[in-house]
Amino acid sequence: MKIYVTEDYQGMSRKAANIVSAQVILNPSSVLGLATGSTPIGMYKQLIAWYKKNDLDFAQVKSVNLDEYVGLPPTHDQSYRYFMQTNLFDHINIDPASTNVPNGLAEDPEAECERYNQIIRSTGGIDIQVLGMGHNGHIGFNEPGDAFELETHVVDLTDRTIDANARFFASRDEVPRKAITMGIKSIMQARRILVVVSGEDKADIVKTAFTGPVTPKVPASILQMHPDVLLVGDKAALSKL
Ligand code: F6R
Fold first, then answer.
1. Chain centre to alpha carbon of residue 47
2. Pseudo-torsion of CA 189, 22, 101, 3, nearest 10°?
3. For the segment 4-13, what is each residue's pLDDT rounded down to a tens digit?
4. Of 100, 138, 153, 234, catalytic
5. Helix (H) or strand (E) holding 233
6. If you write DSSP's letter for every residue of 59-120 in order, what string do you get?
7. HEC profile for 174-228?
8. Would residue 151 show up in a list of annotated catalytic residues for this protein?
């Protein structure tokens, strides 16, 4: 694992954007695995800025997102499709047909998981997967459990994740209880993984995930087994490593 420590969130965003843009410059038809959440927003802003300066071209890039809430339409301002449109896709020249987010409105969520697995396979594999980390060590919506779930699946969100996400909804009751998420195997099959973390509140889980035992009770701990992980964090988030 390579660790990049930055002064603050701004620096973390810039470093992570540098890594993604290096990927896109070296391979213009890269497959990017993308994440939502607060942490990567600054990275997306930086990528947009470099695109607008003509330093980046996303015309041939494909993307697959980690997850989506079950029951939210793409137009809902808390759906992850909406997040990706407004925080990245609407501002760059990626082909809309080349962007993939699980369909939260699929009538049969299990069939949607299978369709999503096929999409991931049909891209030829993810070149770089961006990951944020939950305070309980979740990656995507792979919550702590007794086993690592392998491929795309439907999950019941834990109370802790519902609490953490409630800030984005009018009330806790409105937070969806289920999500579709890429599984641990799909994430681990990415050729390279870029983990972004910021803030003191992530310091404990960063330490547990990267220096503790590999266990499904801390899903991010599996990343210790991946041969090419880049951990980019500000000094507050990495303070306990
Ligand atoms: C996002 C995702 C989540 C977040 C995690 C951290 O697509 O799957 O695992 O990466 O909850 O979220 P933030 O960045 O808001 O702390």
1. 16
2. 60
3. 999 999 999 9
4. 138
5. strand 229-234
6. TT-EEEESEEETT--TTSTTSHHHHHHHHTGGGS---GGGEE---TT-SSHHHHHHHHHHHH
7. HCCCEEEECCHHHHHCCCEEEEEECCHHHHHHHHHHHHCCCECCEHHHHHHHCCC
8. no
The rounded average pLDDT for each run of 10 residues, N- to C-terminus, in the chain (241 residues) is 98 98 98 97 98 98 97 94 98 98 96 97 97 96 90 91 87 93 96 98 98 97 98 98 94
Cα distances from 88 to residues 111, 131, 208, 220, 227, in angstroms, run 28, 16, 31, 25, 28
Tens of pLDDT, residues 72-110 = 999 999 999 999 999 999 999 999 999 999 999 999 999
Burial-class residue 49 by CB neighbours within 10 Å (0-12, 13-18, 19+). middle
At residue 138, the 3 state secondary structure works out as: coil
Closest protein CA for atom 11 of ligand 1: 134
What residue's CA is closest to ligand 1, atom 2?
140
Measured CA to CA, the distance from residue 190 to residue 186 in angstroms comes to: 7
Question: What residues form DSSP beta bridges with 128?
Answer: 32, 192
For the Cβ of 27 lying below 6 angstroms from any atom of ligand 1, the answer is no
Q: Which two tokens stand for residue 65?
A: 């997102």
